[in-house]
Each structure stands twice: as structure tokens, then as C-alpha cells.
């Protein structure tokens, strides 16, 4: 058994190989495991050097296992399954200390995405108790840095020092207004200057939505109302109080029913990434790891 660790690839590399076999793509396998594609390529090359055989054929259309790679994958599956059994036993010995997951999420994610993820997590881990702290992106960051949450979800433009991140989805902000507003009948897009000069119903400072809009308009956004939840902003816009800027995720039903109208805008970048974040060096494990995986399904 001496030196076995030097001859057998590490568990993470074997999990990556299994993901490549299942997904047919090194890039998709990397995303599923929360690593970059260059890191995944490097891990595969290192494993090939260690074993002395080619494992994966790469092409523009995807990644295919070599004959040797298919055989190694079968062996790897047994090792990974044994490791999972070991982990399950170790968790039982810990007396269910991991049975509570603390999640902090920004408002849009908490309202429109997180419920579905938590339902799926319940199917995987029915005995896990999840506590949810909802607030704006700045509040989520504060919770994580104070060790008051295990995993967070934010919508802002960047993540401060002390946190690690992975992009889980992409989103777009849109300008909406009630059907009776003059903008609802416009035939040409709004300019950045028009948007910046018009008082808007906005989320409060510190929210990811506000960060993106302020960056797009150079900090010139003018609040007509500042509200602390997406639902409140939406309700005010539906009532005819004025135009609002909201996530596309939040207004699908209202747009379909014509309670709100989307107003095109030109030369204003309102796209954003949605991120999962955690304290540096504390990558989610157990229920947190499972929840993170579910966000990419």
C-alpha cells in the first residue's frame, strides 16, 4: 500500500472524469463541479500524465472518452461510490451536526429562484433544516463575513474580499411601466439620458438591482420612490405610480397579463450575473454543496 496516493488520482480528478463521461463536455463538467475550464483541462492532463494513458479526446463539438478513458471511468465510479459511502458513514458519526443550513439571499433570488431550489433540496435531504435570511446584496455579504450564513446568493456587480464566488445564472434588468404611462406607447427606445433624467421607482441603495442601474447610468439614477423589496417596486409600478427598473425574472406574469409594459432602452447595459458566494476557504459542503449543485440544473 506504500505510495498508493502517488499512483491513484485524487478523488476530485476522478469525479471530474465521471462528469465528462456523463455530460460529454469538459466545459459543462467544469461548471457542474464549480471549477474553471482551464483548471479542469489541467486536472485531466495531470491525471493522464500520472496514469501514462490518454483519457479524453477533445474537439470543438465536445469531449469523448478514449477506450482507456472509458475503462478508467468504470474503475473511478467504484472509487467515488466508496468515498460517498465513507462520507455518509462519517456524517452519521458526527451526530447530524450538518443538519442545519443557513442561507442568505438577495431579494430577487429569494423571491423568484430560491423556493424552487429549496424544494429540490428537500427531495435530496429531507431532514435538513434550512434557515433563510433575505435582504439586499450588501446585507448578504455582511451576514457571510460575520459567519451568520453558510451560503449566500447576490446580484451585484462584484464580490468583496473575503468571499469566493461562482456564477450560477444570468439576468437582465428591464424598464417597466403601467400601460397608461406615456412610455408604454413609445415607438423608439429610451436613451440613457432620458432614463437618467426621469424619477424612477427603485430598489434601495445596497441592492444588486440598484448597483447595476447606478453603474449603467454613471450614478445618475433619480429615485421617485426607494423600496426595499422587488414585490413592493412591482406593485407601485402596476398602480401607475411611475416607471420602475426590475429583474426580468420578477415581471413575467405582469408582462404577459399586460399589467406592466416593457420599455426598450438603447445604449444602457443592464445585464448582470447572479452569484453564489461563501467565505473564502469555506466552500459549501453537505447540504450547502447540494444546494449549490441544484442552482445549476
From TrEMBL:
It comes from Streptomyces lannensis. InterPro entries: LysR_HTH_N, LysR_subst-bd, WH-like_DNA-bd_sf, WH_DNA-bd_sf. It holds the Pfam family HTH_1. This is LysR family transcriptional regulator. The lineage of its organism: Bacteria, Bacillati, Actinomycetota, Actinomycetes, Kitasatosporales. Residues 9-66 form the HTH lysR-type domain. Belongs to the LysR transcriptional regulatory family. Keywords: DNA-binding, Transcription, Transcription regulation. Coiled coil: none annotated. The keyword Amino-acid biosynthesis does not apply.
Amino acid at each position: 500500500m506504500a505510495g498508493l496516493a502517488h499512483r491513484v488520482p485524487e478523488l476530485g480528478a476522478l469525479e471530474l472524469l465521471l462528469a465528462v463521461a456523463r455530460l460529454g463536455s469538459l466545459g459543462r463538467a467544469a461548471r457542474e463541479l464549480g471549477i474553471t475550464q482551464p483548471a479542469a483541462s489541467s486536472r485531466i492532463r495531470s491525471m493522464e500524465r500520472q496514469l501514462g494513458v490518454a483519457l479524453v479526446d477533445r474537439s470543438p463539438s465536445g469531449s469523448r472518452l478514449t477506450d482507456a478513458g472509458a475503462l478508467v471511468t468504470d474503475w473511478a465510479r467504484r472509487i467515488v461510490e466508496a468515498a460517498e459511502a465513507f462520507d455518509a458513514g462519517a456524517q452519521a458519526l458526527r451526530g447530524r451536526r450538518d443538519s442545519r443550513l443557513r442561507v442568505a439571499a438577495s431579494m430577487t433570488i429569494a423571491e423568484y429562484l430560491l423556493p424552487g431550489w429549496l424544494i429540490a433540496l428537500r427531495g435530496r435531504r429531507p431532514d435538513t433544516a434550512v434557515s433563510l435570511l433575505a435582504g439586499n446584496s450588501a446585507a448578504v455579504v455582511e451576514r457571510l463575513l460575520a459567519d451568520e450564513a453558510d451560503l449566500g446568493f447576490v446580484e451585484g456587480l462584484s464580490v468583496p474580499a473575503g468571499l469566493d464566488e461562482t456564477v450560477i445564472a444570468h439576468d437582465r434588468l428591464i424598464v417597466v411601466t403601467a400601460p397608461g404611462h406615456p412610455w408604454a406607447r413609445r415607438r423608439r427606445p429610451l436613451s440613457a439620458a432620458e432614463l437618467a433624467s426621469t424619477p424612477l421607482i427603485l430598489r434601495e441603495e445596497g441592492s444588486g438591482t440598484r448597483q447595476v442601474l447606478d453603474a449603467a447610468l454613471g450614478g445618475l439614477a433619480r429615485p421617485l420612490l426607494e423600496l426595499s423589496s422587488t414585490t413592493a417596486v412591482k406593485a407601485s409600478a402596476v398602480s401607475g405610480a411611475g416607471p420602475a427598473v426590475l429583474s426580468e425574472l420578477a415581471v413575467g406574469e405582469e408582462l404577459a397579463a399586460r399589467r406592466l409594459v416593457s420599455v426598450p432602452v438603447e445604449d444602457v447595459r443592464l445585464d448582470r450575473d447572479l452569484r453564489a458566494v461563501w467565505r473564502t476557504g469555506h466552500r459549501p459542503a453537505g447540504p450547502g454543496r447540494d444546494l449549490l449543485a441544484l442552482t445549476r440544473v
